[in-house]
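R.M. (postdoc): so does anyone remember the format we settled on? I'll just put the C-alpha cells first.
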C-alpha cells in the first residue's frame, strides 16, 4: 500500500474501496488459470540464452545490446529472433529501455529493474502513425507482432532514476514479491506509470 491500506472485512465479497473499471467487460466463473512454477525452472529450461550475474539489456528493435562482465561482453548485440527467451541467474536484470520489434521474454532469478521507457515498435497507443502495425478500417491495431514478457522471481522494480510519466509496454510478472517503485515509501511523485 502506498499510503496505508484501506480497511478490508474478509467476510465481505469485495474490499469496500474497490471500484474497478473493466473497460471491455468481465467474465465471472471462468476456469482457474494454472500459475507458473515459482522456481522459474521451466522458463530457464526454455531460455535460448542464460546469463550469469547482474546483467543490463537495452532494446534496439530486433536486437538487444547486452553488456555482461561474466562473458566479457561490452554492449554485445544479441538478435531477438534467434534468442526469444533470455534468463539471468545469480543477479538482477536491468532493462535500460528501448523499443522492441519482435517477441521476447526476459526472466531473472532475482529482480528485474526498469530504468527507462520500454516500448513496442508497433505502438498500440499510436497505431495510426506506425507502419509496423496491421491496422483495421477504423485505425485500431488488428495485429501486433511485438510482445515482451518480464518475469522476475522476486520483484519487478521501476528505478527511481526512470523518467517521469514512464511507459512500459510489456506483460509484467513478479512471482514472489511485487511490481513496485524503488524506495516507494520515500520516493517523490514521478507522474503517471503507464503499463500497456
Amino acid at each position: 500500500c502506498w499510503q496505508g491500506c484501506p480497511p478490508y472485512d474478509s467476510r465481505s465479497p469485495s474490499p469496500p474501496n474497490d471500484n474497478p473499471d473493466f473497460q471491455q467487460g468481465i467474465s465471472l466463473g471462468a476456469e482457474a488459470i494454472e500459475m507458473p512454477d515459482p522456481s522459474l525452472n521451466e522458463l530457464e529450461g526454455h531460455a535460448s540464452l542464460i546469463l550469469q550475474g547482474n546483467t543490463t539489456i537495452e532494446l534496439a528493435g530486433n536486437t538487444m545490446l547486452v553488456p555482461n562482465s561474466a562473458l566479457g561482453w561490452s554492449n554485445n548485440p544479441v538478435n531477438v529472433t534467434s534468442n526469444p527467451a533470455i534468463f539471468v541467474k545469480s543477479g538482477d536484470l536491468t532493462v535500460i529501455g528501448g523499443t522492441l520489434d519482435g517477441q521476447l521474454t526476459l526472466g531473472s532469478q532475482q529482480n528485474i529493474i526498469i530504468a527507462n521507457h520500454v516500448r513496442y515498435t508497433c505502438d498500440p497507443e499510436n497505431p495510426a502513425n506506425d507502419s509496423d502495425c496491421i491496422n483495421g478500417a477504423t485505425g485500431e491495431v488488428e495485429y501486433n507482432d511485438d510482445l515482451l514478457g518480464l518475469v522476475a522471481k522476486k520483484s519487478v522494480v521501476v528505478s527511481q532514476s526512470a523518467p517521469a510519466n514512464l511507459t512500459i509496454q510489456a506483460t509484467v510478472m513478479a512471482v514472489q514479491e511485487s511490481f513496485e517503485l524503488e524506495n516507494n515509501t520515500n520516493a517523490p511523485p514521478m507522474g503517471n506509470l503507464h503499463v500497456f
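R.M.: ...and that's the designed sequence above, right after the C-alpha cells. Also worth knowing: The chain has a mean pLDDT of 83. The chain is about 5% helix and 40% strand.
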